[in-house]
Amino acid sequence: MAGVKALVALSFSGAIGLTFLMLGCALEDYGVTYDSDATSSACRELAYFFTTGIVVSAFGFPVILARVAVIKWGACGLVLAGNAVIFLTIQGFFLIFGRGDDFSWEQW
């Protein structure tokens, strides 16, 4: 039962994060409706590289757009809040369900 509650909580927080992202992009008031260790493998290092690029650009790109006045700061705040909620939801999933004995993410 605890696993089901955790899964429901993670789904709910993911939905909140997506809501923030949609609000940041769609609210007309904001004017944007137009739109590593020595044992690691090369594949794992490449995955870390792409993941870092995605996370950094997810937080940096909205700030840059707000700074050059392409979007308003309110939209930037909503997008940053949505990003934080979604990334914390993904991390929570791996922390909660990554400890199982029946499946290991390390085999990938």
TrEMBL record:
Keywords: Endosome, Golgi apparatus, Membrane, Transmembrane, Transmembrane helix. The chain crosses the membrane at residues 7-27, 47-66, 78-98. It is a multi-pass membrane protein. The keyword Metal-binding does not apply. InterPro entries: Vps55/LEPROT (IPR007262). PROSITE patterns: PROKAR_LIPOPROTEIN (PS51257). GO terms for cellular component: endosome membrane; Golgi membrane. Its main location: membrane. It is found in: Endosome membrane; Golgi apparatus membrane. It holds the Pfam family Vps55. Belongs to the OB-RGRP/VPS55 family. Interacts with LEPR. Interacts with RAB13. This is Leptin receptor gene-related protein. It comes from Homo sapiens (Human). The gene is LEPROT.
